[in-house]
Q: What sequence folds into this?
């Protein structure tokens, strides 16, 4: 007796193999150093001080950083110049801004007025008339 059978072979596809290669390691990235906001007092001051009254401080600000900055706090130092020492004082030494100031990346110079920052004492002498005072200012903020 002869056995009959059919042998089927798989159809004509090609088999492929690929090896996966991988590697592990560390890459480096370096953060830049923040540049200070440029503050100058070359803006025209407002002549609004008188004995017992308050006055504004006008600043010109520029952000040299490649990212925007939002200023949130202003600190005022000891007022100097003008006339008798202590005749003009900050109303508050540290102020959290109700409206933060946003400076764009690489911003052009922006003039900002801070209202009622300094107060002339009622006892200020006559020599304080037409005097100009220097108010040290420190601005604090974050990248925006």
A:
């Amino acid at each position: 007796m002869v056995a009959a059978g059919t042998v089927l072979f798989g159809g004509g596809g090609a088999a492929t193999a690929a090896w996966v290669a991988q590697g592990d390691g560390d890459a480096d990235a370096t953060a830049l150093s923040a540049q200070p906001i440029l503050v100058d007092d070359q803006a025209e001051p407002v002549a609004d001080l008188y004995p017992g009254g308050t006055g504004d401080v006008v600043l010109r600000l520029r952000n040299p950083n490649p990212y925007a900055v939002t200023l949130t706090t202003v600190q005022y130092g000891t007022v100097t110049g003008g006339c008798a020492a202590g005749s003009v004082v900050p109303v508050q030494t540290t102020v959290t801004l109700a409206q933060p100031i946003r400076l764009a990346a690489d911003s052009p110079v922006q003039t900002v007025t801070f209202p009622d920052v300094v107060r002339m004492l009622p006892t200020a002498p006559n020599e304080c008339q037409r005097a100009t005072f220097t108010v040290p200012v420190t601005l604090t903020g974050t990248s925006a």
Residues 17 and 53 are 87 Å apart (CA to CA).
